[in-house]
Design a protein that fits this description.
Length: 459
């Protein structure tokens, strides 16, 4: 790796392509777990949905802890390939194992199946996917310290995620059903996705290059104790602000997407409308990545995310004003998607800048650990939001098996779909309003580079 202070070397196009492929490579495992796994467990294997829910809830606790642990472990890695790239190569084949193992549930009785599900889910999600995600999100911070180039790398990764998410979400059920729809069909589909994931992830390792050597930037290097690293993250105010922006953005997404089916069925009167609402939320995310590519070269990250969330605010207000006019709801959903896309694209570059701030403030450079800590916070926050939404519906008397819903249940569905996104959007704007790292970043980097130059002279 070259001198970490070198901010001039340009990122090559092949490295941008590597990040795009990395974004694509992680999607099959993530999309299968989030979109199809519960359906496979309940509708194909016949496992009780309540038991699956408990397993996932308990596993989220381990999942959150593992983000920080593996992030710290990655930061302490040293090799000729760098810090993150060794993990890219190590984890690639395990991604294939993770995907396939999710569908190879043996028919060994209810208890045996639940044990298998718990073990395979945690190995796939808590260990393998966590290592993959932390590695890929940390890699750009080891490729360059130039904020603009680093932001561009994250945008390329986001585009890859969007493209692969659209593919997986749109064709998986059709493929599975066309070859029988049984467990064997899901295993075959898993093998295909496993092969695609491995090729994409390995390509990232071969195409990308790490230039930032952490040992040249801090005297303590990899010897910093885990507790000290964790404390340095918790006192990083910009890490906390970005985490809050992400969690509040997740609240908008959860209320909009999770409640779309209920709102379509019980308020609009046609459950099939939910598909169009969900498409209006997810499809624009692909376009947003391409639109932001030139903008990150010219505008501050705060400006981009603020503009997107303001458009999101208008969408929330529009939905409240015209709650039963479906074309307007579609337009409002697209507006919310713009805000979601800007937030999802910019939060990783903002976290990368927070790494430099934390190094400047505490003298400790935690890159993968900081990314992992943010992931842990996101998972806890998103889990709580989903639980609260479900709890409110339950408290209001909603029952999925009831022929008709009570007035209070219908009111709760409308409120959650229309007003919760607005509330979270306002909170998101509040945090964005106090975020000022873009303005401070040039001075912080100048001081850091002076420190590093002075330390080099002393040696």
């Amino acid at each position: 790796m070259q001198n970490g202070a070198n901010l001039q070397e340009k990122i090559l196009f092949r490295e941008k392509l590597g990040m795009l492929l990395g974004g694509m490579g992680g999607v099959p495992l993530f999309a299968i777990i989030t979109a199809f796994l519960v359906y496979f467990y309940t509708n194909v294997m016949g496992i009780d949905a309540g038991a699956i829910g408990v397993i996932i809830l308990v596993s989220k606790i381990f999942d959150g802890i593992s983000d920080i642990v593996f992030g710290n472990m990655i930061d302490k890695t040293r090799s000729k390939l760098g810090v993150c790239r060794p993990w890219v190569f190590r984890i690639a084949i395990f991604v294939a194992v993770a995907i396939i193992s999710l569908f190879t549930v043996p028919r060994i009785g209810n208890v045996g199946q639940l044990v298998y599900v718990f073990i395979s889910y945690n190995i796939s999600q808590t260990i393998i996917y966590t290592i993959l995600l932390v590695t890929l999100t940390s890699l750009p911070t080891y490729m360059t310290r130039d904020s603009v180039q680093r932001s561009s790398l994250f945008v390329w990764s986001f585009i890859g995620q969007g493209v692969m998410t659209a593919i997986v979400s749109s064709v998986t059920l059709q493929i599975v059903n066309s070859i029988g729809g049984d467990q064997r069909a899901w295993i075959l589909a898993g093998i295909v996705y496993a092969a695609i994931g491995v090729v994409c992830i390995l390509s990232t390792g071969f195409l990308c290059k790490e230039r930032v050597n952490p040992d040249e930037l801090t005297k303590e290097g990899q010897k910093v104790p885990f507790i000290k690293v964790l404390k340095s993250i918790l006192v990083n105010k910009y890490w906390m602000q970005v985490l809050l922006i992400v969690v509040f953005g997740a609240g908008v997404f959860a209320a909009s997407s999770m409640m779309a089916t209920y709102y379509s069925q019980y308020v609009l009167g046609d459950v099939n409308l939910a598909g169009m609402l969900n498409a209006a939320y997810t499809v624009p995310l692909i376009v947003i990545g391409f639109l932001l590519m030139p903008l990150v070269q010219r505008f501050q990250k705060r400006t981009i995310i603020l503009t997107g969330v303001l458009i999101q605010l208008f969408g929330c207000i529009l939905a409240i004003i015209f709650p039963a006019v479906f074309p307007v709801l579609l337009a409002a959903t697209v507006m919310k998607s713009v805000g979601q896309g800007c937030g999802a694209t910019m939060y990783l570059p903002m976290l990368s800048d927070a790494i430099e701030y934390g190094h400047w403030k505490t003298g400790i450079r935690s890159q993968a650990a900081l990314m992992g800590a943010n992931g842990a916070g996101q998972k806890v926050g998103q889990g709580l939001i989903s639980a609260v939404l479900g709890g409110i519906m339950s408290f209001a008397g909603f029952s999925g098996v009831a022929a008709t819903q009570s007035t209070s249940a219908l009111s709760s569905i409308s409120a959650l779909f229309l007003y919760i996104p607005l509330a979270f959007t306002l909170l998101e704007l509040l945090v964005i309003g106090i975020y000022d790292l873009d303005k401070r970043y040039p001075q912080i980097m100048e001081e850091l580079l002076k420190r590093e130059a002075a330390a080099t002279e002393e040696e």
